Amino acid sequence: MAFDIESSVGFLLAKAHQRLYARFRDRLAPHAITPQQFALLAFLWKQDGLSQTELCEKTDIDRTTLSGLIDRLDKQGRVTRVPHPTDRRACLVTLTPAGRDLEAQVVPLARNLRQQIHTELGENDYNQLCQLLNRLRGGNDD
Known about the structure:
Layout: H1 9-28, H2 35-46, E1 50-51, H3 52-59, H4 63-75, E2 79-83, E3 91-95, H5 97-121, H6 123-137
Antiparallel strand pairs: 1-3, 2-3
């Protein structure tokens, strides 16, 4: 019996992710950041000065990958690492003025894409999809 890959949740999620990632990547390209960098910055726009460990937990990105993202944002002058005030082994990732200014330029792009997807799916389906994906991710339904 053949496995119907096209009805597999994993396959469908992967393909949907690829499509949405490409749409967002194209919108962010003029600002020289990737969707992953946007996610990291979005957490810092919410709460600046997080440790790399906190950013790993919030983004679900492994430490090595996250370190590379921070390195690239640091080279672009958008974040900087500062010593942790109470843990000599750790550092905090903080936004630079350029990193703070970027928020006003790229958040409207994210909001616009979210609105487009909301319109494409309809309100009920959009909300249900978000709840289901959050459940699959291991979060709560909020």
